[in-house]
Amino acid sequence: MTILADPRVLPPNAPARTSRDAASMRFTVREFSGSLGDLGTFLPLAAAMAAVNRLDLGAIFLFAGLMNITSGILFRQPIPVQPMKAIAAVAIAEGLSPGAIAASGMTVGLIVTILALVGAVGWIDRVVPRPVIRGIQAGVGAKLALTGITWATGLPLLGPDSAAIAIAATIAVALVVSRRVPVILILFLLGLGMSAWSARSDLAAASWSPPTLAVVLPSSHEWLVGVTRGAVPQLPLTLLNSVLAVCALSGDLFPGRAIPPRRMALSVGVMNLLATPLGGMPMCHGAGGLAAQHRFGARTGGSVVMLGVGKIIFALALGGMLLPIVRAYPRSLLAVMIFFAGVTLMKPARESLRDPRAAAVMLATAGVILLSGTLEGFLAGCAIAGALALVYRSRERDA
Length: 399
Fold this sequence. Notes:
Layout: H1 19-23, H2 29-35, H3 39-53, H4 57-75, E1 82-83, H5 85-94, H6 98-117, H7 120-127, H8 130-153, H9 163-175, H10 183-198, H11 200-205, H12 220-253, H13 261-275, E2 283-284, H14 287-295, H15 301-318, H16 322-327, H17 331-346, H18 356-371, H19 374-398
Antiparallel strand pairs: 1-2
């Protein structure tokens, strides 16, 4: 078996799936609890982009909710809807304008849609070595887990939002192995109550206002900034993590029901072409979010449909009062969500450890991602995979 082998077949011990099972949509407490597993990524980035970049938080929740509902119905799996992390990071760090953010989202959406329509995404999926995809999952998962640890260690030791709370929540999640206990839902509701209490003075002074929906027309300068600073670093992350890695994880978690990369790419492209011109934040799917939601109990598209409905209710009912609540959400509980999302995302990478060559490629890819970035890790992994394949073939000829 070479490192370029592509074992994307149904394992012999995989449970049989009927068409009825595949099409099921469950709306249970467990499903809803699982849908909250990705809030550790969504809440802090959404709040920061509203506060720093002047995006309307009601519009962010409204469009994210609509896309949650759409993805749940289309995919019948708990596929998450997340902020595009590279664009969000650049936007927050550099204070990009709403026009530049919209330009970056529309650019990525257009390119990914074109790649999907011409069949290039399927070709990319076929030629990228499987251990490289596993390395991306491991590297991004490790980054998420380390982010959660960093957030927790940066908190005061004791207090209502402290490292002690994060440790207690981590122990609770680790010990509660029963899937009947919606531990993440309990933590989320606890955090919601804590944030409402912390922001009570801001809430008393705030007034309700509807989500602001307006067509965003970027200027020529905003197009330049959005494309060069936002879209360029985001595009490889979208193709690798939001399309290829999430499709691979979909096949791992739901044997025989892996979502084709072309469908996933079209979903990412179209959602940004529809939402970002109207004030929504750039959005994508993600392997980390899928791992987190599955980890906490989500098994069907019903989970994200319920989450989407909840986001829309929040957007319409609270409107302008959303920002104080989200900004005050306990960082200790968000840290726990992010940590377990990262750990779950790393687990499928263990398959590459069975073969020394695959393990070398996977570990190298993950290591470079941790030290540098996703694009650098992808390039390093592909280079090492190609070099090892040439060495292996040369040894086979000599033998």
